[in-house]
């Protein structure tokens, strides 16, 4: 290590204008210390630690940044702690607001100023990494006797700036060692680590502060685009730039071919002024798209890879934000307006854990919907379905509520956990709730209103936390009038109802047919095709048994198909008979049509798009 005296002499020579072999940032900082801050290199000053109260103020102001940066800092510290580095996060005034270091060296670190509360502004501490970085806004290594003050010439410090989303330098990240190899080059890796951590902290900060904006992440190569992009910019709903990381600013400045530009000049500019896209193109850059489609071309020809993250809320219609309908629910329909409205309502109600009554004709998918609500809410706990109409009345109480050992004659010695408790933490689906015996309705009401269940024979109720969904194809209001359903339970259940449309009303019947068929294909390990006439028949039928009937009809059709082709012959007769009424004429018309086809049944069948057997059957009936 150099002697104190020769270090002071060197600084003085530089002050007199001598050429120095040191890095330019070091020389510039020395000159600032001498000329601007009037520091005297012969007076050594120990590191300054701000008083406790002052430190609290600094930390409070930097609280959000400390929180956002914390995981990045911890990751960095884990990488460097073995080499006896300490980590300092300082605010824009150079005060260390977060610190990580080995507590065994606490005293030494505190004396050296590598500690919480130490102030490393250039005008107080002389040339140091944090101070030089705050002035230049550039990453810097201040190694050993690069320091101005002789008290610090044992340290090596490497720092990089952290900019806020509007481009102001808001903090500095520094890693330092008390002792290090003599060569400054030994700190190059430290410089790289610090710079990449600050890049990630800026990205995390941008993502947190611009949740309602698009974020466009940029990289020179596609591999790290989604995991560790070089830069990012935030855009509002009309495509105007609202924020950026420091790298994002660099990318914009390059793309705009403008040197000496400040972030203020870039903020508010439209993305289409800089790049060959506008805001409507952003979905094309979202994750999952092939990298080839994620090339972003600047107006000046610069090419980058870009990955877009959509805003947390819909910017296009802020007054009516789209409710987030979980995938499990969205998968129940494809374009049927009534279904889509109902599913959006289901998502909202389910998120608030409100008991829901599902109404719909038999087989319209009430249980299927209940399961989708359960899955859509994270699928935690069990989904327990009870068909109140199917369980014998004398068993339903013990099935639902469970019982204690020996609660009644014939009860198991071990007692039994009821289905309500089985569903604890999950979903209880009470199908055909209209068939629930009156006496049990009041006990069910208690489960709904007080979240507790009392097994048969138990003295105390047990707390339960569950989602209760129920269904009925009966008119519960009518049952209330007849005195067969409790009014209070009805009101509680009826507060939130979901009405499933009948299959014949659904606009997405064609899609449902394909869905059900592909499920059958998976089960059977075969591929099926439906010919035109059969599809017309399936679409024309009014399906009183709804999805259950359709599903069964397709299952039978698949079994009867030859070579995987489902034609009219594979469909149940009643359905098929109806379709011929739809697709052909009345009896007279049929005779006339046959004559027109030269009494050729095959020709008429082709013309009507039905199978020959259909015509034969109709003719047989006519005779
Ligand atoms: N969206 C759907 N997609 C595919 N299959 C469905 C869908 N909805 C229901 N199904 C199928 O239709 C059949 C009837 O559904 P579900 O049992 O849910 O109807 P339900 O209204 O509860 O009937 P019920 O009134 O008789 O209790 C089941 O085989 C189910 O798998």
Automatic annotation (TrEMBL):
InterPro entries: AAA+_ATPase, AAA_lid_NorR, GAF, GAF-like_dom_sf, Homeodomain-like_sf, HTH_Fis, P-loop_NTPase, Sigma_54_int. SMART domains: AAA. Keywords: Activator, ATP-binding, DNA-binding, Nucleotide-binding, Transcription, Transcription regulation, Two-component regulatory system. Residues 332-559 form the Sigma-54 factor interaction domain. SUPFAM superfamilies: GAF domain-like, Homeodomain-like, P-loop containing nucleoside triphosphate hydrolases. It comes from Shinella kummerowiae. One of its GO terms (biological process) is regulation of DNA-templated transcription. GO terms for molecular function: ATP binding; sequence-specific DNA binding. This is GAF domain-containing protein. The keyword ATP-binding applies. PROSITE patterns: SIGMA54_INTERACT_1, SIGMA54_INTERACT_2, SIGMA54_INTERACT_3, SIGMA54_INTERACT_4. It comes from the Bacteria. The keyword Transcription applies.
